[in-house]
Structure formats: structure tokens, C-alpha cells
Amino acid sequence: MRDPADTYQAQFHRRWGHLRRARVRALAWLLDAPDLLDPNDPGWHGKVGTLGPMTPAVAQWLADVDYDPTALDAALGNRMYTRLGLYAEKLMAFYFQERGQLVAHGLQVRAARNDTVGEFDFLLDTGDGGLEHIEFATKFYLLEGQAANRFDELVGPNLADSLGKKMRKIVEQQLALGSHPAAQAVLPRPVTAAHALVKGWLFYPLGTWPSISGISAQHCRGFWCSLDEIEQLSGDAFLMLPKLQWLPPFRARSASWILNRAELHAELEAQFDTNPSPVLVSMVREEPGLFEEMERGFIVPNDWRDRAAARRAPQISGT
């Protein structure tokens, strides 16, 4: 594990430790976390956007929302969110709305009643009479394989997605939506810019720290290892994170569900018997009256590498 004082988690706690509410902490992470993709890398051909650095005004606004979350709570409503992507999208919509930038959110484009062409995640006012189309994604990928420059080897925990597949869809299909003939009927003004805004965490085999072209050098990162490898982890206090707590580093005044290493192994072993989904685990330390995340990583079933290799085999053979 890296120097605990130098992890992204430590930086986040120092910067945002005053925020008390989980929703506001999640929004702070979305706005202030390093971009997952490097917008300046020529390989993206200008298709990747960024929110830019956090300003003092936005930081103060977050503190104000934390003090009085009435507007945020109203924007999110009373529904129980089960999809992390939708939850993150709603938080970003609130931010853009409060900034006076939001023209439309989730605007669907249909060629016919039962023929949906696509959907604009966000349409923002550019200030010059045009619209900026933002395709927004919050992703969590594990590096599987040896070729660290191949986005197809950054795969989702359940092996159903990859960074390469996701970005091809965004760049080749979704960002072109503004020029589709059917879009002209619903657009209030022309789309003059279109960008992907991608936040998230990447997870690397335990003990590795690769650099990948096209990925932001400062991106949020963690480890992954198999169940049989958890003895190699440092620390002895762990939390199994529910999906809606995947965005910012964990921080709470109490956490009665802390597990030691043996308890974690037993819990995961039992879970993997019926559910092969990898589990995101937070390694925490206890401060006086406080639990804070130091590192995080996915623990995968012992056969996950074999299943990942089987997924990769057809791609290598070109079938």
C-alpha cells in the first residue's frame, strides 16, 4: 500500500472532511475528483471534456448545500436509488441547474414513436447561442491482462463491459447525436460542442501501479486481488461497500459493520458461493469518533481471472 498520507483518500479527507452529508460528499467527489481520462491526450481527438479545477466559489457553495440541503434533497426526491449511474447523473444535473447552465437533462431523440435514436445526458448553455452536449459516465474498471495500453483490458467487475467498449460507443455514436436528423426536432438550439465527461476509479492487480496513455495521471485508483490473496493486504479493518457508496472515499462517525481479515474472508467466501460478483472493499482506520477509508479495492472470486481470460480470448482471435 502507498504512503497513507499520500493516497487520494487522504487528500479527499483533508479537503472535504468538513462535509457531513453523504449526498454532498458524493457531489464534491464528482466535481473535484481527477478526470478518469486525460482531455489533453491527442488520442481522444478533443472528444473528452473536463469540469476544470475546483473554484473557491463552488467549494463554498458545497459547504452551503451541506449546511442546508433542502434544494438538493428536493432535486433528488424521495426515491430510493439503486443504480449508481443514475444517482451520479442526478447529482450532476443539480449542479448544472444551480449553476444556471442546464438547458436539458435526459432529452430523448426518437425517429418514430417506438424508435429511440438516443438520449442527451446533458445539454448546457455555452453562452454564445449554442449548446454543449455532455455524455456523462461514472465507471469502475479492473485492469485484466498485461497490455496496459489497451482499454479493452480495463473491464467491469462483472466482465460485461470495458473502457474500450464504453468509449467507442460514446465517441462513435452518442456524441454524434446532435447531428442526427431526428434530433433537430427536439433541440432548442444547435449543438456546437460535444464531449465525454468520465469520472471513476481504476483498479490494478495488487502491488502494481501502471501508467496508461490516455488515462489521467492523477486518476482515482485502487487494487484488486482474489479471495485467496487477501492475506497480502495491510491493515485489519475492512468494510464491504454498498454500490451507492462507491463514489467518494468512505468516512463516517460510526461503522458497526467493520470486519477483520478473517471475518472478511469468511463473509466473501460465503457470498461467492451464490454470487460471483466482485466486492468493493474499503480498508479503514479509526480516528477518535471517526472511521476513514485509507485504500480500496475489489476482491474477486478465485476463478475471476479464468473467466476474464475466457472473455478476452474471442477478442484476441478476432471472432
From TrEMBL:
InterPro entries found in the cross-reference section: DUF1853
A Pfam short name: DUF1853
Listed name of the protein: DUF1853 family protein
Source organism: Massilia terrae
